[in-house]
Amino acid sequence: MADDPAAVDLHHPPAVDPELLDVLDRLADRRAAVAPFDIGFPAATDIDYTPLTSRLAGRLLNNLGDPTVEGLYPHHTKRQEREAIGILGDLLHAPAQDRWGYIAGGASEGTEYALLVARSLYPDAIAYHSAACHDSVPGAIHRLGMRSVTIRVDAVDEIDYDDLAAQIDRRRDRPAVVVANAGTPMREAVDDVRHISAVLDQLAVRRRFVHVDAALAGLPLATVSPRLRPGFDFDDGADSVVLSGHKFPGTPLPCAAVIVRDSRRRALLATPTYTGSPNATVACSRSGLAVLAFWFALKLLGVDGLRRRAAASRDVAAYAHQRLVDIGWDAHRHPLGFTVCFPDPRLPRWPLAAIGGWSHLIAMPGVTREHVDAFLADALAHHINGATTAVPRQRTVRPVDFTAPIPVLA
Ligand SMILES: *Cc1c(COP(=O)(O)O)cnc(C)c1O
User: Fold this and answer.
1) Is 252 helix (H, G, I), strand (E, B) or coil?
2) CA–centroid distance for 101 within its chain
3) Which residue of 216, 243, 339, 360 sits with most ligand 1 atoms within 8 Å of its CB, as the best mutation to test the pocket?
4) Cβ 105 under 6 angstroms from ligand 1
5) Is the CB of 108 under 6 A from ligand 1?
6) Does the CB atom of residue 197 touch ligand 1 within 6 A?
7) What contacts 24+ positions apart, CB below 8 Å, involve 199-204?
8) Of all atoms in ligand 1, which is nearest to the CA of residue 106?
9) Residuewise pLDDT in 10s, the chain (410 residues)
10) Is residue 256 within 8 Å of 281, Cβ to Cβ?
11) Of 166, 242, 276, 410, which residue is the least packed, with the fewest Cβ within 10 Å?
């Protein structure tokens, strides 16, 4: 009678099959085995989240809808969400009386939300983004049905401001939505939003919206004095900024904060629903646990802790860069970045991102000089010094062409 629903004992959860536990153990083992080689992707690993996960990860926490409206569902973490948005909003100089934000499922969703706000203001806008941006930017533009122009980048992936000015100038009858990068995916290049604002001012483009994709670099950059870093925050001219939780804070669940000027999202204000909280975000259900993890990292470290941690990681990145240059590699690093870019060495044990013959290591918190030394020892053992000549010098990362017709499945 195992199929009889009446036979299910609701008072006792099912016992976990040892085979199931075995799968979980093997996944945990694989994680541990890769840890010494984990320098290729931008997820920090230094924070222990178990005080949080051991208490709260076993049951649903769901931040349904607008974080500023508690709603009827009781199991949420919206108070912590508002606090996290407050801390991040202060760091980004978002106007205290004119800010709103939420924690999305990732930076791609955050950018899509920001572009949705921009399109609600200017349905006939042209979106401008650099050739080095993350795929999520042309992806969101495509899904929102916006027209866009790709702007050239310089040799280290920063947007070409002259090309931006020329392209906007050709379409001055249309509003402009500019997506700037604070940390491009391959080289962590930063587009200066003060420079972008100056371009828009000079062309007298008043109908405009500037979104900053600051998934990786926004939080560490925000701990540096504005005088010593490129412009990327609200004071510099941003209307919205997205910052990832699973990158610099290293939250164990993917998430990203998106913050916008509240006054600019009026056209998008949603009506209340049966949950008691207007569905003001892209997704309806959102992970309350991811929110809590982002909040936990911010409270644990404080702004000073974030600043010291960013500086320590930049030291490791500078060390890696110098050592690679010393052995003759064509290595590059943004002076404030964690990313060291170099020709793809194709080292079997090291899981590194690669495109167009280029690769990188990212000295996220948790990556130490010992990781770098081990990587160098392996590279030298494989005789990959002066790797530059062996690899094509094609450095611009081409985004996917989302304007191509979508193949129709038979
Ligand atoms: C990682 C990254 C993204 C994508 O973030 P998801 O959270 O995976 O959606 C977008 N933009 C930049 C610059 C990134 O570094």
Assistant:
1) coil
2) 15
3) 216
4) no
5) yes
6) no
7) 199/161, 199/164, 199/165, 199/168, 200/168, 200/176, 200/237, 202/165, 203/165, 203/168, 203/169, 203/172, 204/172
8) 7
9) 456 766 778 888 888 999 999 999 999 999 999 999 999 999 999 999 999 999 999 999 999 999 999 999 999 999 999 999 999 999 999 999 999 999 999 999 999 999 999 999 999 999 999 999 999 999 999 999 999 999 999 999 999 999 999 999 999 999 999 999 999 999 999 999 999 999 999 999 999 999 999 999 999 999 999 999 999 999 999 999 999 999 999 999 999 999 999 999 988 877 778 888 888 888 889 999 999 999 999 999 999 999 999 999 999 999 999 999 999 999 999 999 999 999 999 898 999 999 999 999 999 999 999 999 999 999 888 866 554 444 434 443 334 343 444 333 33
10) no
11) 410
Question: Does ligand 1 come within 6 angstroms of the Cβ of 254?
Answer: yes
Q: Is 66 in the pocket of ligand 1 (CB under 6 A)?
A: no
244 ligand 1 Cβ < 6 A: yes
129 lines ligand 1 (CB under 6 A): no
Ligand 1 centroid to Cα of residue 307, in Å, is 21
User: Are residues 402 and 140 in contact, defined by beta-carbon separation less than 8 angstroms?
Assistant: no
Ligand 1, atom 3, lies closest to the CA of 107
Q: What pLDDT does 11 receive?
A: 83
Q: What is the pTM of this model?
A: 0.91
For residue 274, CA distances in Å to 62, 144, 269, 288 come to 15, 27, 16, 19
Distance, CA of 63 to CA of 327 (rounded, Å): 50
Ligand 1 atom index nearest CA of 216: 15
Ligand 1 lined by 140 (C-beta under 6 Å):
no
- Grouping H, G, I as helix, E, B as strand and the rest as coil, residue 341 is strand
The Cα–Cα gap between 242 and 212 comes to 6
Classify burial at 184, counting beta carbons within 10 Å of its beta carbon; exposed 0-12, middle 13-18, buried 19 or more. Answer: buried
Atom of ligand 1 nearest to the CA of 244: 7
